[in-house]
Amino acid sequence: MKKVNLLYDATIVCNIMTKNSSRSGIFFVAYNVLLEFLKRPEYDVYLYADDLIKLREVIKNCPEFKDCKIYKFSFLQEWVAYFRNLKNENKLNNGHSLLRGIYGLTASILKKCYLLSEKTVRMDDIDAFFSPMNAVPNVVRRNKHIKCYTILHDAIPLINDDVISPYAYKWFKKLLKTIDERSFYFANSEYTKQDFLKYVPNIRPESISVIPLSTGKPYKKIADEIELNDIRQKYNIPMDKKYIFSLCSLNPRKNLIFSIRNFLKFVEKNNLNDFVFVLGGAYFDGFKDFMNDKLKDFGNVEDKIIRIGYVDDDDLSALYSGAEMFLFPSLYEGFGMPVLEAMQCGLPVICSNCTSIPEVIGDCGIQVDPYSDEEMVSALEKMYFDREFRNSCVEKGLERAKMFTWEKCGDIIDNKITEVINA
Description:
about 425 residues; six-stranded parallel β-sheet
């Protein structure tokens, strides 16, 4: 059987070189789906990215990509990559207006250019284009023989654009413009699929397949006390206190004030002085000041609420494993990867009963109305005091987490691409 020449948008995969909040759930989806393609001999994978210099650096420094081939613009992309690099290094300032002008002109010209390969394949030889998040480039869409596939992560900007950054809103609007009836899509949950069918009229139900995601890395339960204590010291979590863990981008959609308010109610009601709430994750623009103001309303709680910021991926297994429970009462999720991560580490979960989250948690934890203080406090008490129930959630969560694998995700994607190309 002839190999499929696949052009993969690796723009977000380039974030692998930087350990910060840019390595979000979407990054790990893009990274792991790409690895699945590279494992499958029926594909010849060519990588495309907005930043050619960064892509080359990734291929050079990451062993898993050492045999990848770059698919690029003509020599003009080399030019724009050079000027983008100057811009990133703040060398394009007011004293370099001519260079800035050239950069803008070059970028404009590039939008009209066809892609050329560093290897031997031509645009005419590309069978499929795969985007893990971004809009399909016009230069690809113009080639009608190329089958295009895109992962849809959520429809949040169509429902509440106040909880996303201006950059994300712009990215999403561009994606919407390229959704059409002849392309194919993979939704990260049944809920996401239904949202897109509801809000985007020019998408066909039969063109969307639901894929099970997995976790960014294969997290696991850690029992080694030395490792658990080391992670507490690293993130300044008191050694003599138990902790509830929450991991998410700190923004309004994650319902963090609700979580904090009800945690404080729970510990006060039950006179628990040896319990703290650990919040992990980077701040959404403008939300830090809002949260600081809200925390003041709760009084002197700085010793009970510990904000540890961005968490290195390598530390997550220990952070999950050392906690009493995981709290995730988000108001909207396309999937809810942290819930799955917690289950992999044997941590019982309390989460929302809305959007896609029930598809992940199943019956392995407690689902609550994310607007009900009474339900949340009751869930915290149940999970904390009923040890038999807690242990049952742990065991069921460990088993359920095995259902979500990147191999299964890759199989569904592979089957759809094969089906369409062979039709």
